[in-house]
Specification:
Helix content: 25-40%
Strand order of the largest sheet: 10-16-15-14-11-12-13-17
Shape: globular
Strand content: 25-35%
Structural class: alpha+beta
Length: about 600
């Protein structure tokens, strides 16, 4: 069930539409967010492809993924936990309407890792997929766990009411104006639909399931059975608190050899020996944490890439008599997770003969110590080390996220100004702010103005940097910004497509039957200079338009959208608009 060496999941594959289906709407939640990882999600949901080296650097391919999903994706994350992109560019502007920051009033965290996606086929039949993960939407290489379940629209059984309540809670946890009004409507519609969706299990190991959105109104950790007593228990929790582990430890009905706790080495100092009397405690071996050898085909031995990793999965398997319960999701074994944070748990029920601690230990630990990625540790009374300085800097940024903020754009003709205002006291002098695509930063205060900005330097994403000595932390925050120019998206499209070559690449790409194949064809066309000549559209593009008119007429809607967004006539080859209009007349008659 959980063999780290073989049972690997790909985030993109988990979200891709099934064959014959297209994404209608997708809502996700995460604690931390990487905007480039969100672009990868858009590729999966919109183009049914997995991001790889051939694709991730092609801006035209990425633009089409974002155009396909712009109105279909909504992601909620913890305020102050958006990673600053390594190479910020105009494409990131198109993610603004997808991202909603959540700031908890009780200073706890918004921590669920969750997706609910609605797909639809040509016959209008809907399919719903729910994913519950321990993984954030980032490129972190730590070991995580995920579970997915699918269902169709039928008479409701009541099992999905927690999903309905969770989706509705998202509109209450975030500020009303922070959610695009059309997406808010889609979200609430999905919440109502899910009440009549029947999800089905297809594994003999499991007899039933339940959804548990812990921390929202009317849902608590006690409802989950998390603290019920047990005969056997295996815990994987990267972060923990001593009190919570002791509470779980003291619920043991027996003291068997195989009650197991797996955590991070950095967390061990938090534990007291008296809190784990019923457990063997394990951490990941240093050789695994320091990086597995990622030697791909064609690389030399000296080019081996070492990347840090650790446990990030959250999993609890407990048995009592002949019954088993498996908890998967975002919940750490900590006080904040159980009492205050918003978390999401998927609970599976089964029989001990199929689902037990001994079998899971064998999957995780392997057949011998050499194969085991984990090692036992001894718990001793020790002082808990001080948290790193960067933790305090992150708190400063989170406190800024909790302040009411607002920005207004004035000016025009590529001489814009942004006036940013924060309501409340700024506690630290060594904090700086700048728009995402601007190089110049300013010390943060209650009132900041940036002048002489170009259109593509305008964004609702702002970089906040907190500094203390030689340490610094940067995060992206989103500030509601009024008077954003209506033609900004058009400017992004013009900037990405750039010229006639880029335009024909893009149209050829839209019309292709296979996105990856179209991308490779376009690259070869550019290499050999066969895209267009003497102002005439290449025959291959005309043939693709003929094929699309017969098989996929909806693709002409995508072409129209791009034509409407392109304001620079020098980008569109001579004669293309006339050719498109001729095809459009034929397509609309069908």
């Amino acid at each position: 069930m959980l063999k780290p060496a073989s049972d690997r999941l790909d985030y993109s594959e988990m979200l891709m539409p099934p064959y014959g289906y297209e994404t209608v709407f997708a809502v996700g939640t995460t604690y931390s967010l990487d905007l480039d990882a969100l672009i990868g999600v858009c590729i999966a949901l919109g183009l049914s492809e997995s991001i790889d080296n051939e694709l991730k650097d092609n801006s035209i391919y990425l633009l089409e993924a974002l155009q396909k999903t712009a109105e279909k994706v909504l992601i909620f994350c913890e305020g102050g936990q958006i990673k600053v992109p390594a190479n910020s560019n105009a494409l990131h502007i198109l993610l603004e309407k997808m991202v909603v920051e959540v700031v908890m009033k009780n200073k706890k965290s918004f921590h669920p890792k969750f997706w609910l996606v609605k797909y639809e086929n040509e016959d209008g039949e809907a399919l719903y997929r729910c994913l519950v993960l321990s993984r954030n939407l980032t490129f972190d290489r730590s070991w995580d766990v995920a579970v997915g379940i699918e269902g169709k629209y039928k008479n409701g059984t009541g099992k999905t009411k927690p999903l309905h309540d969770f989706l509705q809670s998202l509109t209450k946890l975030s500020k009303r104006n922070d959610i695009d009004k059309n997406k808010r409507k889609e979200l609430l519609n999905l919440a109502e639909e899910i009440m009549n969706v029947n999800f089905e299990l297809n594994k003999k190991e499991f007899t039933d399931f339940s959804f548990h959105p812990v921390g929202i109104e009317n849902y608590s950790i006690e409802d989950t059975g998390f603290f019920n007593n047990y005969h056997e228990l295996l815990i994987i929790s990267p972060f923990l608190s001593n009190g919570t582990i002791k509470k779980i430890n003291d619920m043991a009905l027996t003291n068997p050899y195989y009650n197991t706790l797996i955590t991070r080495k950095s967390e061990i100092a938090k534990l007291k020996p008296s809190s784990v009397t019923n457990f063997e405690t394990y951490v990941m071996k240093d050789i695994i944490v320091d990086g597995e050898e990622a030697l791909s085909e064609g690389e030399q031995e000296e080019d081996i890439l070492k990347q840090k990793q650790d446990i990030h999965a959250k999993l609890y398997l407990k048995t009592k008599y002949s019954n088993s319960e498996l908890f998967i999701g975002s919940l750490n074994a900590s006080n904040n997770a159980c009492y205050g944070n918003v978390e999401f748990i998927f609970k599976l029920y089964g029989k001990r003969r199929y689902l037990n601690v001994d079998l899971l230990r064998k999957d995780l630990f392997g057949d011998n110590d050499k194969d085991n990625p984990f090692e036992t540790v001894e718990i001793i009374d020790d002082e808990v080390p001080e948290p790193p300085l960067t933790d305090n800097l992150e708190k400063i940024i989170k406190n800024i996220c909790r302040l009411k903020s607002h920005a207004v754009i004035t000016g025009g003709e590529d001489a814009y100004s942004i006036d940013i205002q924060f309501e409340g006291q700024i506690e630290n002098n060594n904090v700086f702010i700048k728009p995402l695509l601007l190089n110049k930063e300013k010390a943060i205060s209650e009132h900041i103005i940036f002048d002489n900005l170009k259109m593509l330097q305008l964004s609702e994403f702002y970089i906040i940097k907190a500094v203390s000595g030689e340490e610094s932390v940067q995060r992206l925050i989103k500030i509601r910004t009024d008077n954003m120019p209506e033609n900004r998206e058009s400017s992004v499209v013009n900037d990405i497509i750039k010229d006639k070559n880029g335009f024909i690449q893009y149209i050829s790409f839209i019309l292709g039957d296979d996105y990856l194949l179209s991308l490779l064809e376009n690259k070869n066309s550019i290499k050999y200079g066969f895209l267009f000549g003497s102002g005439e559209i290449i025959p291959a593009l005309y043939e693709k338009m003929l094929r699309a008119a017969a098989r996929s007429p909806q693709k002409f809607n995508d072409i129209k959208k791009i034509l409407d967004l392109i304001s620079d006539d020098n980008i569109i080859p001579d004669g293309f608009k006339e050719l498109y209009q001729a095809f459009e007349k034929v397509v609309t008659r069908k």
